[in-house]
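Work Package 3 (structural annotation) set out to generate three-dimensional models for the target panel prioritized at the project kickoff. During this period the team completed the workflow that converts sequence records into discrete structure tokens, so that structures can be stored uniformly alongside our sequence database. As a representative example, we reproduce one entry of 972 residues exactly as it appears in the project archive.
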Amino acid sequence: MRATSSVIVGRVAETGLLSNALDTASRRSGRAVFFVGDAGIGKSRLAGECAYRAYGRGMPVLRGRATSTGLVVPFRPLIEALSSRFRAAGTPSDPELDPYRPALARLVPEWRQGSAPGYPETVVELAEALLRLLSVLGQEHGCVILLEDLHDSDTETIAVVEYVVDNVADLPVLLLGTLRPEPGAALDLVRSAERRQVATVRELAPLGDADVREMTASCLEAAPDEVPRATHERLAGRAGGNPYLVEVLLADLLDSGQLRRAGDRWEEHANPDASVPTGVVRSWSRRLDRFDEPVRELLLCAATLGSRFSVTVLQTVTSFDDRTLFSHLRSAVEANIIAPDGADPDRYTFRHALTAEALVASLAPAERAATARRAALSLAAIEHELGDEQRQLMATLQLAGGDRHGAARQFAGVGRRMLAAGASGSAVILLERARSLAHESDLRGITESLAVAHAEAGELDTALALTAELPPVPPRSDASEQRGETHIRIAWAAVMAERVDEAAGQIRTARGMLGTAVGPELEAALDVVDGHLALLPGHAGHGQQERAQDAARRAAAVAEERSLPVVACQAWQLLALLSRERGFDEADACLERMLAVSEQHALPVWRVEALVRLGANTFMRTGDPARLETARTAAQSLGALVPTQTVDGLLAMNAVMRGEWDGAHEIIERSVAASARVRNLGAHRYLLLASATLAAHRGRRRDLDRAMARFRRAGGEESLLVPLQLGLCRAFAALLEEDRAGALADLDASLAWELEHPSFFYLSGRYGLRPLLRTLDGRGGRAELEAILESPGADLAWNQLFLRLADGVLHGRAGDADRAARAVGAALGDAAAFPLARHLGLRLVAGAALAEGWGEPVGWLRASEEYFYGAGIQPVAAACRAALRQAGASVGQHRGGWDRIPAPLRTSGVTPREYEVFVLLAERPGNQQIARRLSISPRTVEKHMASLLSKTGRSDRAALCEFSAECAAERD
């Protein structure tokens, strides 16, 4: 008889919690639940019960477990969870997952074929991809992901779990995790999530006496009152309410014959003074003694390998042939000690982690060490065939066998390979383990690698402290070159974190370490880091850009000569950025070279970077987004979420400028939330700015204020986007409210900011809109315009529109009507892609053309009035009508416009002109402000106000303004 319970006892509250969580997940209200408790307390039983109930509801279940062997395998529980689902149900083919398949390929082997290799997705990108996958799997009935033994998880898995916990609330997903209350990253995550109220945490208490009796009865397939009193007291007293220990101790009683069935009842035949097991270790020792010696040897070797073990490794250690090995494994399975691992056909697992621990503990220390040494030697014989997981196992066995230094070298080797693969968190764990065991001769190299791992994991202060502890090395030696490379890598991490002083200090240290005889490869790497450092805020100064350019050119030349493709791409990227101030042709030439190097050396990440930057330059020069779309496709094919979001920001702004407002809104909505979740702050800010600019270019002040508040909260007003915020967003909002003075003030502020903070943005108005407005008000002249036309910013199609209009105004003012008209004609011909800017430009120059008698201002005003009326931007449309009347031209009435008025207002008799006033009331302006924005008299505003009060039945102006705000909210 197997002493296992078929029912869960004593966990009514916990099973109720699971039922509720499954209900809410099926209704697209996600939840994270964690069960915390000691080994054997029943966490896995509850996870199994959750899976059973989920299957009954038709919910997909993904189940994975961390390894309890101490081996560090990035994403192990997640890989197992996805495999457990897809092995049975196949991989999903939903098109929605297409952008995420390359990132998920790290977890789903079936998606690795045909995907471009080499993109080192961040943990957060991978977590976002997993979240999208779970959302797709749960779109019909909800989805459950079970992750067990998180206390044994790698840091990368914990980071993914944290991201899912923080973002699962609005998705049809239940995340259930189990862990022991052991100090570590997993417990820290759970406690933090509980404090932030984004997860439900339950600590499992021991079973009470009644529950132990009920569980014992279930194991014996008897009624609770049929359990012998002595048996109950023995189990309740020795198991401490731990369900697993109850089963183990009960199994020992059954196996030893101390508890047996007599007819229709159970009897215990134990002598109270007899020698009986006093704990789990003695219990398992007794059970082992009942097996044949080969089976006992197999189980002890398997337990030495861990609670989950590879059949291949076990065969290597035991030297059993296939027939003998699987015969012994069957015996252990039939004894209910081990079971095949459903997630991996090469693995078996002990029924509980405590089982393996108890079996190992049953050995005498000397025998335990000898078993571990024998296993380690067996693995060492095939070391060349071992993967990183097996090498960690070998290190663990070496340590158990007393070979600390050999274990340190194995841990360090695996840690360095994980660092090279981008798993810096796991690398830190392994290198720290190696450092604590290393021989003095290995300590320096391991510490250097550990410092780099900490730096690349974002723990720069720890990295700097480690380098400060390093002993000096002889100059001009292999050791000094390795130390110099360490400082260069930490300097790059400091540059990426914008830690200017620390980066500069690491560069100085590296140069001092390497001396004047530094090799060209390291010199090139130093130049690239030094060049990027020169551009950081707080480090820029006189001549810094020239210094950065010189460094980048040297690095590019050496990298090309020495075949250092990554350094070459870094250098060409920096040169392209620096070259933009001399023109886009030179910048594009650098990027084309970067693209060629990346394609020649199969560097997909750098290829995407080159395509994105080339696309951005083309978009700025011509307004054509085609090359950006190509870059986005390339980024998507890699599963590169961060570059994809960066391109989406540029595409959204391009769509705003082209007047494709619905398309811009769609792009922003698909990426703005995801960019915040993956902490892609640069793209997130740009998308928020695109959202604000969209509102500004549509003349929607309330939407603009809300968008600007979001931009501000994201730190946008402390970023390099400030010139665009002022010149492309706020200045246009002012112009569409007919506030030229306000627009010019914003443009002046943008220029002042750029002069204090040199940047490479050319859409801030400095090279287009500002010169036009200064020309119109008489402050700008031919000399100012000619100077701007010499700048690279004048090459942008967007800016050329305004510069050519300014040129036309200056020619008209000089009496050359033909040249003025040709300049405006040229501006209009090149600006077809930018309808709002085109019609706003016509509105702006029409006044000067009317006053000075050149061009076709009446036709321009009529075209602009039609455009702005159709776009719902009433202040400019009204200003155009007023200018037409002032010019003595006829003004056609818009008999339409009724469809814009909400039905309740339309049935109350509100007219289109009254509705224009009503819409503005949401902002609570005065009559004078309304008059200026609609280009009507204050007296007309008063008449419309009186009519609106009467038709809407509102008692006063405040109530009418409140009603307008309510209608605006409904429109939004």
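The beta strands are 31-36, 61-65, 143-148, 173-179, 200-203, 259-262, 265-268, 308-310, 338-340, 347-350.
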